[in-house]
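User: structure tokens for this one?
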Amino acid sequence: MSTSTHGTRISPAEVRTATFAQVEYGYDPQAVHQFLQAVSDQMSADRVQLEARETAGKDEMVKIISQAQVLAEKFVAEAEQYSKDLVASARTQYSEILRRAEQAAGNSAPGTGASASPEGNPEYHTPIEEIEYVRTYTKVAQVQLRAVIDALAEQVDRLGDVPGARPEVAAAPASA
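Assistant:
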């Protein structure tokens, strides 16, 4: 055979132009050349098809990554807005608690749980119900923010799996 196949892939052109030594009782040279032409044509078609799949795969990967990025940005924006809402709510409650404490200090009387210090500042001896409410609300907010962050991390992990999601593209050259 006139074509080198030592460790390299055979191209369609090498198959098409391959020649063989003539022997007395060998194969029909015309039939061999027709078969080689058919193999060469099939190899060319397979390469074109493989290149098209690779291009489509890259386009799909870019599309998936873009969608994941949009989704991640949406999660971050929602988490930021949720945090701003929590801070605003906490400030409102803080103001309300402070206002009530000031009213209680003004109406300081035995049995209300508040009394005036020697300096005239109110001292509280029993827990205020609103403080427990804010503490519970903060814990709930922490759990919800953690859930949003976990969902975002899961989406990022899926991005790491994208190249392995198309094993038929990687396996195609071995079967061609």
